[in-house]
Structure formats: structure tokens, C-alpha cells
């Protein structure tokens, strides 16, 4: 990889390769999440991964990718079929990319991605986008109950035996969908779960320290012992 | 011995790829060469072994789909266009770990796939000389099918050409594993 720093502090990066089918999947998933109004952070949360997982995957200069298990899980999250996030096949196995990245006027990283044509040395523009800040709230046509409405529902789950067994964010999302409707948007569910797991700014009723066999975060009712940790 | 655990998704993919591979008369080595042309490793053999954790990634599946299409076209099969959609489950699966299990009787096998499966498993039946009719009867009983002798003529011929089977003589030909 060659990095050139110009006088205007712009960075041009030649990134020699990307696996074509993985690369195209990343930006199809991005398109779908933007359509639904899910931020990169919100999708990372539903995947049960760290806060910046999706942002890192979407970074064309990074190396993180969605693996087949993530693909299957994304389809469960979006309640979608494979063609909505994956091409049937790609003739070129490898893409040669040219990525220009720079900070815009609000100091956010912008990526301009071009893909080298299969024949010749020309690059065709693929996508330009700005890395999302964690807190961004994207517009959505989905059902977005208020924080209080969502908390009231999660409270019901807390008083029942629901959280006696570990639950993934996707399980809770599914329960919220059954309660609020199929187009339920997870934004306030995530805020409520953060509120109930944060020892400093919230009321810690849930523990999120454990992960399942796929590295996805688990939520479980806090026990008296947790309070001493 | 402890069972190797993999995701239910990977287990599905491994078995569907194997089933189509056998049906398209493709050996493990041949498919491995397509996926990793510069390696001597039998990647497909590792993937299809319940003793390793090796699984396919999306790059492998893209290459496999393209090779399956080429091969199906060459064999004049009815279905000639394979995509990664054929290798993933139609409906997404509930995410869980399962013991890595290679199907003893892969789903969807026809005459070609069945013969290849038995030859790959070095089934003892093929240690002896058999006529096409006897092979057909054996394959039918193995898979509970009612295939005709004609279903196996070209399959056996290809197996002979590729050196998997040897023929006893021109007159009254019988076949056994090479």
C-alpha cells in the first residue's frame, strides 16, 4: 500500500486489492441500512459487535469484512433475502481500488472509492461517502416509539423472566418488533438497553459483559453479585 | 474424540457445495485448484473433513459458483448457471454451533453424483469387476432410486476416461475402481 501526503494534508491511498464479492456486499449492506435509517453504530449494536464494527467494515482502507455468518445474521436483522445484500457472482475475483480520503469541513473522514476497470488502467468512480459519527440519527420511515414507550416495554420484559436467560440484541429487537410492529426501528431500544447497562449514567439492571459463541454481546438480568464487580 | 463445532450456516454450505461438486463430476483436488491455484493443499478435502474447522469464505464461494457454471455447461446439464445464491440457504438460518457433519447421503444426488460419491468413498463394491447393470442396481439400492442403466452409461464412461474406473475388456465390459 502506498500512502502519499500532499501539501493540503490530503491523503491518497492506493489499496491494491479487495475481494470483489465481499467488497460489493459491504456497500449493498450500507445501502440497505441507510434506506432503513440504521446508523453504522445501530447496526453494529444489532450485530452484537463493538460500536465501530460496521464503520470499520465500511472503511475501504480497513481490513474488516462481513463473513458468511455475518451475512446470515444481517439477513435475520433486515428480514431480507440474500440478493438484497449480495451479488449472485462477480466475474473479477479481486478489485483494484483507488481510495482518496480526506477530512471535510466538519473534520469527518470522506472516502472517494474508484474501482479499476477489468481492462486497461482506468478507474471508475464507485462511491463517495463520509464516515458516520457514532451519535448520528438517520431519518427513517420505520416505527420509532419514544424512549419512554420503549423503556416501558423493556421494563415489562425485565419484570418477567425474559432476561433470566441471556438475550442477544437481535432477540430483543425481534421481541420489540412483535410488540411495536415489523417496521420497528431499534434506535430507542438501543438507548434503553444502554441506559439499563450503564453504571454511570443509567440504572444498571442488565449485564452485557458476556458474549455468545459468535462473539455477539449478550444481555442478562444483573444479579446481586454483579453489584460488587 | 471431540466433535468439531461450526456454524449451522457453514455446515449447510459445505454439504451443498459437496453435493453439487459430486453431481458435476468434480474431484476435491480439481475444485481446490480452482480456489487456490498456487497451492498444493487440498482445501476442499480439508473443508469436507469433520476433523478440521476449515470452511469456505465468500471469495471461495464466488469462485466455486463460476466454476460450477463452466462445468455444468461443459457437461450439457440442464442447469448451467450457478451463483452464490445456490450455495447459501434460501432462508437465513438461526445462528448456532453444530457438530461439523458431512452428509453420508448428500441431498439431490443423481446418477453422476452417486457414482462419484461411492468412488470417492472407495466403496468396497468397486473392488470387484461389475457390469453397468450391476453398478446401476447397486447405486439404486444405495440411494433408494430407480435409475436406468442408460443413466449411468456416460457417467461410467467419464469415470473411465478420468482414470477413476478401469474397464476389463471391450467385449462384455466390466468396471472396477482404478
How many angstroms does the end-to-end distance of chain A come to? 45 Å
Q: Which term fits the overall shape of chain A?
A: elongated
What is the mean predicted local confidence, pLDDT of chain A?
A: 91
Largest sheet of chain A: 5 strands, antiparallel
Strand order, sheet with most strands of chain A: 1-2-3-4-5
Element string of chain B (H = helix, E = strand):
EHHHHEHHHEE
Strand content of chain B: 5-15%
Taking all Cα atoms into account, the compactness measure Rg of chain B is: 17 Å
Largest interface: A-B, 26 and 28 residues
Number of helices of chain B: 7
Structure, briefly:
The complex is a heterodimer of chains A (229) and B (178). With 229 residues, chain A is α+β, with helices and mostly antiparallel strands.
What does it look like?
The complex is a heterodimer of chains A (229) and B (178). Chain A is an alpha+beta fold. Chain A has two domains: 2-130, lambda repressor-like DNA-binding domains (434 Repressor (Amino-terminal Domain)); 147-228. Chain A has helices spanning 20-36, 40-47, 53-58, 68-78, 147-159, 169-180, 187-195, and strands at residues 2-5, 11-19, 94-103, 109-116, 123-130, 167-168, 206-207, 218-221. In chain A, a hairpin with a 5-residue loop joins strand 1 and strand 2 (11-19). In chain A, helix 5 crosses helix 7 (187-195). Chain A is elongated, with a radius of gyration of 20 Å. By secondary structure, chain B is mainly α. Chain B contains seven helices and four strands. Chain B has helices spanning 8-23, 28-35, 43-47, 58-74, 111-120, 132-143, 149-161; strands at 5-7, 97-99, 165-167, 175-177. In chain B, the strands form two sheets. A two-stranded antiparallel sheet of chain B has the order 1-2. In chain B, strands 3-4 form a two-stranded antiparallel ribbon. In chain B, helix 1 packs across helix 5 (111-120). The longest helix of chain B has 17 residues, at 58-74. Chain B is globular and about 55 Å long. The mean pLDDT of chain B is 95.
Amino acid at each position: 500500500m502506498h500512502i502519499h501526503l500532499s501539501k493540503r494534508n490530503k491523503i491518497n491511498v492506493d489499496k491494491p486489492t479487495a475481494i470483489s464479492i465481499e467488497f460489493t456486499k459491504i456497500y449493498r449492506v450500507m445501502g440497505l441500512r441507510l434506506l432503513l435509517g440504521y446508523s453504522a453504530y445501530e447496526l453494529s449494536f444489532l450485530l452484537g459487535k463493538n460500536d465501530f464494527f460496521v464503520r470499520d467494515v465500511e472503511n475501504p482502507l480497513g481490513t474488516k469484512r462481513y463473513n458468511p455468518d455475518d451475512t446470515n445474521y444481517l439477513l435475520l436483522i433486515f428480514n431480507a433475502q440474500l440478493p438484497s445484500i449480495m451479488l449472485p457472482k462477480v466475474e473479477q475475483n479481486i478489485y483494484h481500488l483507488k481510495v482518496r480520503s480526506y477530512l471535510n469541513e466538519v473534520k469527518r473522514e470522506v472516502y472517494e472509492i474508484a474501482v479499476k476497470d477489468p481492462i486497461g488502467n482506468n478507474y471508475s468512480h464507485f462511491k463517495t461517502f463520509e464516515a458516520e459519527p457514532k451519535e448520528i440519527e438517520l431519518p427513517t420511515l420505520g416505527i420509532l416509539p419514544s424512549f419512554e414507550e420503549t423503556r416501558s416495554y423493556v421494563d415489562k420484559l425485565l419484570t418477567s423472566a425474559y432476561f433470566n436467560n441471556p438475550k442477544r440484541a437481535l432477540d430483543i429487537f425481534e421481541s420489540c418488533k412483535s410488540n411495536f410492529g415489523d417496521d420497528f426501528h431499534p434506535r430507542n431500544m438501543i438507548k434503553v438497553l444502554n441506559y439499563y447497562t450503564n453504571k454511570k449514567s443509567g440504572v444498571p439492571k442488565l449485564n452485557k459483559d458476556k458474549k455468545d459463541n459468535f462473539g455477539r454481546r449478550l444481555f442478562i438480568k444483573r444479579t446481586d453479585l454483579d453489584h460488587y464487580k | 474424540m471431540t466433535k468439531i463445532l461450526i456454524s449451522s450456516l457453514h455446515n449447510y454450505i459445505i454439504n451443498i457445495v459437496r453435493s453439487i461438486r459430486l453431481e458435476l463430476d468434480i474431484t476435491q483436488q480439481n475444485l481446490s485448484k480452482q480456489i487456490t491455484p498456487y497451492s498444493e493443499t487440498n482445501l476442499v478435502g480439508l473443508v469436507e473433513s469433520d476433523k478440521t474447522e476449515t470452511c469456505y469464505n465468500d471469495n471461495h464461494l464466488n469462485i466455486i459458483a463460476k466454476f460450477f457454471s463452466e462445468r455444468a455447461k461443459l457437461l450439457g446439464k440442464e442447469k448451467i448457471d450457478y451463483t452464490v445464491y445456490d450455495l447459501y440457504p434460501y432462508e437465513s438460518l438461526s445462528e448456532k454451533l453444530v457438530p461439523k457433519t458431512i452428509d453420508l447421503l448428500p441431498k439431490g444426488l443423481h446418477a453422476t453424483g452417486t457414482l462419484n460419491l461411492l468412488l470417492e468413498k472407495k466403496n468396497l463394491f468397486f473392488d470387484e469387476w461389475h457390469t453397468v447393470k450391476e453398478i446401476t442396481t447397486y447405486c439404486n439400492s444405495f440411494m433408494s432410486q430407480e435409475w436406468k442403466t442408460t443413466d449411468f452409461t456416460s457417467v461410467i464412461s467419464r469415470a473411465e476416461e478420468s482414470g477413476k474406473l478401469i474397464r476389463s475388456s471391450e467385449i462384455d465390459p466390466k468396471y472396477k475402481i482404478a
